[in-house]
Design goal:
Shape: globular
CATH architecture: Sandwich
Radius of gyration: 18 Å
Oligomer: single chain
Distance between the termini: 31 Å
Structural class: alpha+beta
Number of strands: 8
Helix content: 25-40%
Strand order of the largest sheet: 1-8-3-6
CATH superfamily: Jelly Rolls
Order of helices and strands: HHEEEEEEEEHHH
Number of helices: 5
Length: 181
């Protein structure tokens, strides 16, 4: 379907896009030929300061890469917000769009006056995965490695700030959620 691995040379613009994509851990191990499959699906998006890109709990319908500006990721607890990180050029977010049925775990809000993003719709990611199992495997491994580090750091930060907690409850709830599917 994609005419995969037919190209040997790429335009200067495509090479710039490859470098931008490779700044994201998800795309880092993909070859130029593999990255080329995503280029037609990069859609420009523009946001102004404090504009919401997505809310926690929304369906994960696209993966985003920052072209310019900054994006603030935060968590809302009741009427308060805790900032997680401010991302900038080349950073990606919404990575769980590579998972069918995933929902957003945090809020994403434009932090700079103007924020330009590249969005890759989930439907296009899934089409590529369906045709190219090797790409799906590489990106799934990168995603798993990222989330493994992320969870380790969350547990470490929680223990350093609050001591021990009932981690068994988190595993039990995750198991219950999985059994409902």
């Amino acid at each position: 379907m994609f005419g995969f691995f037919n190209r040997k040379s790429y335009t200067p613009r495509e090479k710039v896009m490859f470098r931008l994509l490779r700044r994201s851990e998800l795309f880092r191990d993909l070859t130029d030929d593999e990255l080329a499959l995503f280029i037609p699906h990069l859609h420009p998006r523009r946001y102004v300061q404090n504009e919401v890109i997505f809310f926690r709990g929304d369906p994960s319908q696209a993966l985003y890469i920052i072209k310019s500006g900054e994006v603030r990721l935060n968590l809302d607890v009741e009427d308060k917000f805790e900032e997680l990180i401010i991302l900038s050029r080349g950073d990606s977010f919404g990575d769980n769009a590579i998972l069918q049925g995933a929902r957003r775990n945090f809020n994403a809000i434009a932090a700079s006056e103007v924020c330009e993003l590249w969005a890759i719709p989930q439907v296009n990611i899934m089409e590529i995965f369906e045709e190219e199992a090797q790409i799906k495997a590489k990106m799934a491994l990168a995603f798993a490695a990222y989330y493994d580090r992320y969870v380790r750091h969350i547990v470490k930060a929680y223990r350093n700030n609050f001591g021990f907690f009932n981690l068994g409850e988190a595993y039990l709830n995750a198991k219950r959620e999985a059994s409902k599917k």
